[in-house]
Amino acid sequence: MKALGSLNDFPAADKSTYLNTASVALMYGDAEKAITNWQKDLAEFGTMNFDEKAEQEVFDDLHVIFARLVGAQPEDIAVASSATELLASLAWAIAPGRRSNIVSTDIVFPSTLYPWARVARYTNCEVRLLKGENSYADQEELIRLIDDDTAVVCISHVEYGSGQRYDLGRIAESAHTHNALLVVDAAQSAGAIPIDAPASKVDALVSGGYKWLCGPFGVAVMYLAPHLQMKLDPGLVGFRSHKDIWDLQADRLKYPDDASRFEFSTMAYGCAIGLTQSIRYLLRVGVENILAHNLKLADLLIQGLEEMKAEIISPGNDEERTSIVSARFPGRDSYEIAWDLGEADIVVSQRRDFVRFSPHLYNGTDDISRALEKLGQILAS
Ligand SMILES: Cc1ncc(COP(=O)(O)O)c(C=O)c1O
Known about the structure:
The chain is α/β, with parallel strands linked by helices and 381 residues long. It has two domains: 31-284, Aspartate Aminotransferase, domain 2; 287-380, Aspartate Aminotransferase, domain 1 (Alpha-Beta Complex), CATH 3.90.1150.10. 38% of the residues lie in helices and 14% in strands. The strands form three sheets. A seven-stranded mixed beta sheet has the order 2-8-7-6-5-3-4, with helices on both faces. A four-stranded antiparallel beta sheet has the order 9-10-13-12, with helices on one face. Pyridoxal-5'-phosphate (PLP) binds next to α4 and α5. Pyridoxal-5'-phosphate binds at residues 82-84, 109, 111-112, 156, 160, 185, 187-188, 208.
């Protein structure tokens, strides 16, 4: 099976056997060109081309395209420089009070939780974490932690370590029964797993650009449900927070009446332009097709790993699995295995005590075969 994304789309795909999208993706070629062109134009012409009107409208296309990716409307989308930045602004905007609690897991990526934990230290609210076992957090146990004092459930749609996927609709339903909000970090799912944020009834969903969306560092997007847009006072504010960004009167601040009130400052705007290109491309390929392709690669990988007697820690059932496949190799050091693979230009990550493989649309079965063959040699040595 050939890669779904061609070498034309991903010119770097033949430089290595790249199985590390859960860390950083190979970038879509036209995205990289758009970013470079924008940066060069700014360097050479300042505001001659990138004038005030262009700066005001710079996120418009990304609003439209990310909205399409998650089944939302352009006014439900905000853009900033990183997922952490958006989560931090949201956490301070919601700031659950002293008698409330925040529910999450202890296997979540730190940036998903830290902003909430920081706010909790300030407001003295409780942070209630489900203890994962062997990098797995049982969804029903997570739901049982939610009670009438829960203000926010914050989870990662797909866990960065094991690739475990949660059912957003099921968790949102339980959260809403208790009047709690569901905030989702989709950094490990957006671009790889179909998402319909309004249909799943999530209240907010955030993703950076550089993993499964095949965009750059320096840009992130957030879906904010309409019912929250007029209510929230963003934790981070700046000149772009004002409805008319060129008003520039420090003695007044009126937010836009939509999710864009979470946009607050200048940034590496070219990154937003590049990410728009990447998402447009992924939509053309189709996220359903990408998921089907990636899962076939994961199947092949799992089969090979099982033949090598590896201990696979990623869930195997259809509801919870993704193309992130993590494994331990009994008696062997994961760091050394990841290192030895890297020496052969097979790029994976070591996380906790396991090796994480994360193929995406630019991989084909030849990449998996090559990785397994080298792994076999490493294990035999
Ligand atoms: C689930 C998840 N959230 C967030 C991040 C990183 O966020 P940021 O781009 O803000 O550093 C990662 C990075 O690995 C991640 O796996």
